[in-house]
Amino acid sequence: MSSESVLVIVDQDGAVLCDMTGGSPALPRMRFDGRWPPMDSELTDRVRRELGPATVVLEPLDFTTVVLLAAGGTRPVSADGLAWHGHDAVAGQSVAFDRRAARSRPPVSDWFRPGWFERAESSIDAEIKAAGRVRLGPTRQIKHWSMSAVLRTPTDRGDLYLKAVLPRLAREPDITRYLASLRIAPFATITAVSPRDRWWLAEDFGGVDGWALSTEQRRACLEQLVMVQKETIHRGDELIAAGCVPLSPASLADGVRSTMARDDIWRAPKLAKNLGRALTGEEADRLRALTPYLVECVERLDEAAVPATIVHRDFHPGNVIVRDDGILLHDWSFATVTNPLFDLASWLLDVSEPDAASYLDAFFAAWADTVAPERMRGAWRVAKPLAAVVEMMKLIELADIVGPDHDFNWLPMTYGWGRRLLHAAADPGLAINGWRK
Q1: For the residues of 358-373, what is the DSSP string, one character each?
Q2: What is the sign, positive or negative, of the torsion defined by CA atoms of 130, 131, 134, 137?
Q3: How remote is the C-alpha of 135 from its chain's centroid?
Q4: How does pLDDT run across 268-305, given as a tens digit for each residue?
Q5: pTM
Q6: Closest to 5 measured CA to CA, from 42, 15, 104, 13
Q7: What's the rounded Cα separation, in Å, for the pair 249 and 295?
């Protein structure tokens, strides 16, 4: 699978690098393997190799259109067949770019603003100097989208990572440090935090990424999560003080009602920004009709008396690292105090039915010394549709925060969870272990 992407390369004054090979200014296009271009240094490496200027990823405008900022304060020399022009020269060639040029509001994410990368670099260098370390190479962009920006800088004592997030998620380093203080498992080592900039530095995790693990190894990762969850039973006040958000049965019921009432989302037309995945009118009707059933599920789950714990709320293999000293769970941006069963939602996403059954068995067995497996399995019957709602609540909140310029990152996933909820509600006996039919 490959895709063609539109590259909008701008300088500090807003001039646009244009492809002149057709005789008139055109936005450069580049073909990539995969459905989307990489929003990281892999993209900027290729731009420099094929087009000439050194750039940083500045702002994705949709799934295939991205703005890159030419590095440095002066306009770089154009390569053959390229020239710098104003926006008017390419007006009408990209709806997303025209919309960006016309908007008056600044982007919500600080890292989409010119100068952010240089400020982050300066902060990294100051921390490297204060720690008596030596930089060994350039900083590289690892991830750059509406929720966060991640940079990696090599030093003589290992790589340092800078992560910047939306204000709503800036509690992650405090939660990580709190979990590390429990001394029950390895967690990320936070070396510096800037509350003003909402970024922090952490040491390289090392180890093996969870996506490379076998099913059996992933079972162990799920058991590690349960171990962390059980350690936080009766620590709700401490978790909330560290930054975790409480999600009580009452607030979950309110969340169900408000989420199901979002007709602006459920009845939106199928558009390029949501990848054409918006619900049909019939699906939207069925979703809204689930409200009383879901509120009843909240009541029944509360009656199951599963203790509240920390819930990662974005628990998938990409947030797991296996190291010599144990399994490290990271990225606690969405950490919540609520029912631990909700962490099964994202872990079961896209897994086969046999693997889903295996993971459920592992999860319930790991809880057996606290909650009997059959009681936990019974609780999962009503928790499963609610787990889909909890995912939807997270994604809708992010879409609302970043607004119409960047909600394309979150809308397709929201519709995916809406359909999973419909499937789960149609299967109250849990004939399907995961989310696949």
Answers
A1: HHHHHHHHHTTTTS-H
A2: negative
A3: 28
A4: 999 999 999 999 999 999 999 999 999 999 999 999 99
A5: 0.96
A6: 42
A7: 9
